[in-house]
Design goal:
Layout: H1 12-16, E1 24-30, E2 37-40, E3 43-48, E4 55-56, E5 67-72, E6 75-80, E7 87-89, E8 92-93, E9 97-99, E10 105-108, E11 111-116, H2 121-132, H3 144-161, E12 165-172, H4 175-182, H5 184-201, E13 207-210, E14 215-221, H6 225-241, E15 244-246, E16 249-251, E17 255-261, H7 269-285
Parallel strand pairs: 3-4
Antiparallel strand pairs: 1-2, 1-11, 3-5, 5-6, 6-9, 7-8, 7-10, 10-11, 12-14, 12-17, 13-14, 15-16
Helix pairs in contact: 4-5
Length: 292
């Protein structure tokens, strides 16, 4: 007879007793290897395109040796190494050697890291992984998964109390042309700024999410079709007047919007999305930069 196999059992109490890393870390919140944590040990950590880098980002927007992170006497500092496209710390171009603080965002090429200080890093890391399941790393608004959860919750609530629910789908016009003309880094910057501008103009009750590549969705509880259309038009005008720029180049940006609202009592979330999506298609087919 063959050797009898035994199923291994690991007690939770033993997992809790395992040692955990106490060093600071960078966590990828946007880009390849999403969610990966890089511990920052004492000394220097080089981030770049070169295979010899401590943290390699194999993308043509990243220089071979792009940025250096130094850990010394408990202090963590970051310094750009003369990279072609620069390093951004909390959306500001990094100049000189700067100390990192918890929750700082570091953008290298198209990759965004979040810095987590050494204090209670394991708890912070797991909190960050949970956040990554609901927040888009680039724009810092809710992601598609969050949208799918919230629309079902709001739909159920509206049915229960007999209230309305509307949806605005937003598409950044000719986004491929923006990428082709100004580059993908500029395209990323446009998406972030569009999201930030919209977030500032909607109510706290509304739910903004990045629905797709260059598409955003705004769920507006207790707002009827007329009200949702009026809000969408305000957003359209705001984006049209807003000056977008990257590397001192002005980028013309407009949006198209499709608006839908709950119809009959048995409406599903899929029906609401389809209604708004059809109207968005109409707006784009009619020449873009408009509301349907």
């Amino acid at each position: 007879m063959g050797q009898k196999t035994v199923t291994a059992v690991t007690a939770i109490s033993k997992i809790q007793k395992r040692p955990f890393a106490r060093s600071s870390a960078l966590v990828v919140i946007y880009g390849q290897e999403l969610g990966r944590k890089y511990d920052l040990e004492d000394g220097k950590t080089i981030i770049g395109r070169s295979s010899k880098s401590d943290i390699q980002i194999d993308h043509d927007s990243v220089s071979r040796q792009h940025v250096r992170v130094t850990v010394e006497d408990g202090r963590v500092e970051i310094e750009d190494l003369g990279s072609t496209n620069g390093t951004f710390l909390n959306d500001e171009s990094l100049a000189g050697r700067v100390a990192l603080r918890t929750n700082d965002l570091v953008k290298v090429g198209r990759t965004v890291f979040k810095f987590i200080a050494h204090n209670n890093i394991e708890a912070a890391y797991h909190d960050e992984i949970y956040r990554l399941t609901t927040v888009d790393g680039l724009t810092q608004v809710h992601n598609r998964r969050s949208f799918d959860e919230v629309i079902e919750r709001e739909l159920s609530r509206c049915r229960r109390y007999g209230r309305t629910l509307s949806l605005v789908l937003i598409d950044v016009d000719h986004f491929k042309k923006i990428n082709d003309t100004f580059g993908h880094l500029a395209g990323d910057a446009v998406l972030k700024e569009v999201a930030s501008a919209i977030k500032k103009r909607i109510r706290k009750e509304d739910h903004l999410s990045r629905y797709g590549g260059e598409e955003f969705a705004v769920l507006t509880p207790e707002i009827d079709l007329k009200g949702a259309r009026a809000m969408a038009e305000k957003l359209r005008r705001m984006i049209e007047k807003h000056e977008f720029s990257f590397d001192d180049e002005v980028i013309p940006v407009t949006i198209s919007c499709g608006v839908g609202t709950l119809g009959k009592k048995g409406d599903t979330s899929a029906a609401l999305v389809q209604r708004a999506d059809e109207k968005l298609y109409e707006a784009k087919a009619a020449g873009r930069n408009q509301i349907c």
